[in-house]
Write a structure and sequence with these properties.
Layout lengths: L1 H20 L2 H9 L1 H4 L23 H4 L6 H9 L15 H35 L3
């Protein structure tokens, strides 16, 4: 019994060590985005085939934008709260609304908004690192 406890603790330690080496943006991406966009951002996550519209390949955003990464467009797409509903349905979750309630519970209304904004900035920054 003691052996299995030690094995479990060492596996937890390895997982924690691996998580500590990841950026906040990468951790957030893996938790929130990879299921659709895939671990590498190519739009091939495990949910991609069951969605109505295939997720975007996030690795080509810079190339498709004339060689410049469209940071604020990516930020706005992730956040989603500023998009006008009359312009049509959105294909992905409004992450600003998804993140905010839990962040407000933890940090209060002002702190919660700041944390939500930081999470989205971390995500946009991580998507920038996926460019090929």
């Amino acid at each position: 019994m003691r052996f299995w406890t030690m094995m479990g603790l060492s596996m937890l330690t390895l997982s924690t060590a691996a998580a500590q080496q990841m950026s906040n943006g990468q951790q957030e991406y893996l938790n929130s985005c990879a299921v659709c966009h895939g671990v590498d951002g190519k739009g091939d996550g495990p949910m991609a085939d069951v969605l109505r519209k295939r997720p975007a390949n996030l690795t080509t955003l810079t190339r498709r934008n004339g060689g410049e990464f469209p940071y604020w467009r990516v930020y706005a797409m992730i956040d989603g709260r500023g998009l006008v509903p009359e312009h049509g349905e959105r294909d992905m979750p409004v992450w600003g609304n998804q993140f905010l309630p839990d962040d407000v519970k933890k940090y209060g209304p002002y702190g919660g908004e700041a944390v939500t904004t930081e999470r989205i900035q971390n995500l946009a920054g991580y998507v920038q690192t996926l460019q090929r």
